[in-house]
Amino acid sequence: MTVRESESAGSGTALAADEVELRLEEHRAELTGYCYRMLGSVFEAEDAVQETLVRAWRSHSGFEGRSSFRSWLYRIATNVCLDSLNAGKRRARPMDLSPASHADATLPAASPESVWVEPVPDVRALPSSGDPADVVVSRETIKLAFVAALQHLPARQRAVLILREVLAWKASETAELLGTSVASVNSALQRARATLSDAGVSTSGVPGADGAKSAAPMDEAQEKLLARYVDAFERYDLDSLTALLHEDVTLSMPPYALWLQGHQDIRDWFLGTGIGCKGSRLVPVAANGSPGFGQYRSNGEGGGHHAWALQVLEITDGRITGINAFLDTAHLFPLFGLPLELPG
Q: What is the pTM of this model?
């Protein structure tokens, strides 16, 4: 939805209005990425961005130019996100909430979608162009593990960490945006780093911060790994599938809190409770700066396949370290441009 569709009234001439709307829309993707990191939900992020653009549209005639247009938008977006986070809520991954289960565990009741960090399509949260190094950092900092780690931080510390270490804003710029002092920003950044460290997340893992190096983009070896994964999964060859997994690999299935770790439990799960995945088809997607797939389970003798899970893979050193299977297909598949049914 465009700003014009959300807010039909505006000031200025038609030409000026068109120019303002164009400038606002140019920032939609990067603002969505920012709000997604803040909120952990693509749907909440898109709502926050729409509210940001509507507020900017209504007040653009009062923009005095003392800061850049982009900084002005980020100030509005930050306030929208802080308002949303005032209740102290935070999203998580199953691994954040309980110890790993075993393959014979009973599947618990589903939790509300508001509990979980959600996947986001790359195209909605990443800039389509720009400095290659900045694009790589953007990709790395929408990964599920990083976004989940941010949820450990109080809202203002979260904003400071993202602005300073992800978007590379100066302390003075961040202080102006938040209406505080440079000393306060530096203090918040130190506390944010300490909180992440206590949660087992090193700030040296933040791409672009403290000299950390970003992961390499998709290369030939990773493309071959993904091709082998699709082949093994669709043939349901669990020996071949297991050979692609790190020994400490995890399998999670939001909206269920249950998660598994290690070759044996994951293999046993696919041969037991998850046996319905046999005969699945996988359709590639790009999610959270990572490879992913829309998984479709077989309809059986009736032919065709139906949507089952949105998989987001985590890969380290040539092995798959995480399979995140999001089961809310009714909302996620349309978001990723995937049909809910595949014909026979």
A: 0.89
